[in-house]
Amino acid sequence: MNDPTSLFLARAAVILVLGARAAAVVAAGDPATLVREAYRIEQEHLAGNRPSERKAPWTPPRRAKAMATALPAAARPSAVTLGVVNWSAAPAPQVRLAFRTVEGGWEALPDPAPDRESLHKYADLPRTMHWTVCFDGKTRGTLDTELTPSESYALAGVHVQLPAPFPSERSADSGEWTAPPAHPLMAVSSAGLCADPDGWHRKTLPPAAKKALFRAVHESVKVQGCDEKGNWNVWRYPDGQIDIVKTYVSRQGEWLAMLRVLGPPRSNASACDVVLGEEHDVQLFHLDATGKAKHLGASLTVVDAGDYDGDGKSEVLTVFQRDNYDGYTLLYDRFRRQVSFGWHYH
Q1: Same domain, 146 and 237
Q2: Which residues pair with 283 in a beta bridge?
Q3: pTM, whole model, 2 decimals?
Q4: Are 294 and 335 in contact (CB under 8 A)?
């Protein structure tokens, strides 16, 4: 893939699929340009100017359905590997190979090191990968990575960027930082498909959607409380204890909401020690266009959305952090199915 002819054909294919707006970034495609683009995205996000956070015209469901068309069968890739790049990893950006397509859907790659005897095997993982970096429904550039041996569970099966880490000084010609952003995660695809036909973007919940989602939180997230006598019971928390972390809407009028139940007031916990468990982690909910809510899971933070397999429907990539187990969950098939990939630290 590194000869001029192959690179030209690959870039032409990506531009054909994603449109002319991807041409400039794909044509550049060098590591420094890619990282500058990633840094710019982070700065726009911090300043509240991220394109996905700007108000977009609402598209009625009938129009949206026509827009979300799948690639022709002959044009769809036969196999797709989806990974996640962590730009803040040191000394170089790291990619975890997380998911791959199978007949009828997706599956998680197996934990490369479920035990110490497996640390040096990695039998099913490719040694090198050429990726297209995706974010906010657009192609952001390309990245080449290489599998590195590791003595650590946490780094088992991780790919690192080639050929060398990005410098951390200011570029003399552009005046921009060439170091990667502070804590971003981005999807990377072996097939170069990044478009988000469902058009997920940030937006504030309207009252009707908020009411439906809060009702779903009360039904799904049960919290133990403690009365003044030290008796444990189910705490009937008020709506005021539900924190809205982030919310997203699609072109079809569906919602994704990251919600969290705050801990009980100190007076409720004074008679006994209250340990905040998973029920107080961020909870991810989906609300369809008819107003039906579904609890998708705990500790799930949205990373990005895209039609990574070319079937005309966006998948949603999330990250989770739990006790000695971190990883990613891919939500697909209109949120009817999900698959998770994770790793341990010891």
Answers
A1: no
A2: 259, 298
A3: 0.72
A4: yes
How many DSSP H helices and E strands does the chain contain? 6, 18
Q: Which domain holds residue 119?
A: 4-189
Q: Are residues 152 and 218 in the same domain?
A: no
In 3D space, the residue among 5, 90, 44, 230 whose CA is nearest the CA of residue 13 turns out to be 5
Residue 89 tokens read as 């990893």
Radius of gyration of the chain (CA): 22
User: Do β-strands 301-306 and 293-298 pair in parallel, antiparallel, or remain unpaired?
Assistant: unpaired
What distance in Å separates the CA atoms of residue 261 and residue 241, rounded to the nearest whole number?
Answer: 6
Per-residue pLDDT tens over the stretch 246-270:
999 999 999 999 999 987 655 454 5
pLDDT 10s digits, 84-104: 999 888 778 899 999 999 998
317 neighbors 341 (Cβ within 8 angstroms): no
Answer yes or no: is pLDDT of 139 > 70: yes
| CA max distance for the chain | 76
Give domain status of residue 135, yes or no.
yes
The reply to whether 47 and 110 lie within a common domain is yes
- What are the pLDDT digits (tens) for 194-210? 999 999 999 999 999 99
Is residue 331, in this structure, part of any structural domain at all?
A: no
Facing residues of 97 across strands? 83
**CA 330/CA 315 separation, integer angstroms:** 7
Q: Summarize pLDDT for 36-48 with one digit per residue, the tens.
A: 555 455 455 444 4
How many other C-beta atoms lie within 10 A of the C-beta of residue 310? 20
